[in-house]
Amino acid sequence: MLDPVRPDGGYVKDPVLNFEYLAAGEVVPVHVHSDEEVPVIDEGEAEAFHDG
């Protein structure tokens, strides 16, 4: 991933890539943190909500 620093601040500061294994019907609670998350659906289907 290339994302150079720009004067307007539009760049990813702290990217994080997490792999979470969830059973059918399981959910990840709504949460907030200072890192930039990169969601990856490795297998199956998912429904995601992003507020921001």
UniProtKB/TrEMBL annotation:
<protein>
    <submittedName>
        <fullName>Uncharacterized protein</fullName>
    </submittedName>
</protein>
